[in-house]
Design a protein that fits this description.
This protein has 205 residues and is mainly beta. It has no helices and 16 strands. Helix content is 0%, strand content 52%.
């Protein structure tokens, strides 16, 4: 397996779990991730086994407030619950992801999952375009926010949450998952890491 690609504007990237397939297309400014079959992150709230076979291409989160955003598209025919996602990972009991996911009803949606031992899974906006912008924001003191956008300009509030606990450094990054399918090819472009904190979570900025 080759080394993780370098992505312009980001720190060095490493996999949170087993290496997956990834490349950076400098001409497009796009990170392309291809998942293995049947991989996901979930700590089943009904008591099922944990699943952490998906892997996030990630970097250690800065110590001060920041935002990480990207436009996300899933290429090819989609299968149920496949997704391109932005991720936050501390350990197997403390993590979160903001997904451009395919529902059992055949709808592309923004879906968020926050895990503090068990996963809390919430469907958000239906997406009619082939892509959506996703953003995660560190607010300091273990607080985080998720937003989505149809155009990368106006941001819709998805979720505010705390993710305390664990002793490992927090890592943030990008992931492709295919819980029900053979693979998922997720494309992340217009990637921006910014040190500017959010002043208002619900004003569209």
């Amino acid at each position: 397996m080759t080394s993780p690609p370098r992505v312009e504007g980001l720190p060095d990237l490493e996999w949170t779990h087993e290496p997956s397939e990834a490349r950076f297309d400098a001409d497009r400014g796009a990170l392309l991730l291809t998942s293995a079959a049947g991989v996901d992150w979930t700590n089943d709230a009904t008591g099922g086994a944990q699943q952490h076979r998906a892997s996030s291409l990630s970097f250690v989160a800065p110590p001060t407030p920041f935002t990480l955003q990207a436009r996300v598209e899933v290429e090819g025919q989609r299968t149920t619950f496949d997704a391109g996602a932005l991720t936050i990972w501390r350990d197997s009991d403390h993590w979160a992801k903001l997904c451009f996911e395919y529902s059992p009803q055949g709808e592309a949606m923004v879906v968020s999952v926050v895990t503090r031992h068990l996963s809390d899974d919430v469907n958000s906006t239906e997406v009619t375009e082939p892509f959506v912008w996703l953003r995660l924001a560190s607010l300091g003191t273990d607080a985080w926010a998720f937003h989505s956008s149809p155009d990368g300009v106006r941001w819709d509030f998805v979720r505010l949450f705390a993710l305390p606990g664990g002793t490992d450094p927090v890592r943030v990054g990008f992931m492709a998952q295919a819980p029900s399918g053979d693979t998922c090819a997720a494309v992340f472009d217009e990637i921006h890491l910014r040190a500017t904190p959010l002043s208002d979570l619900r004003d569209g900025s």
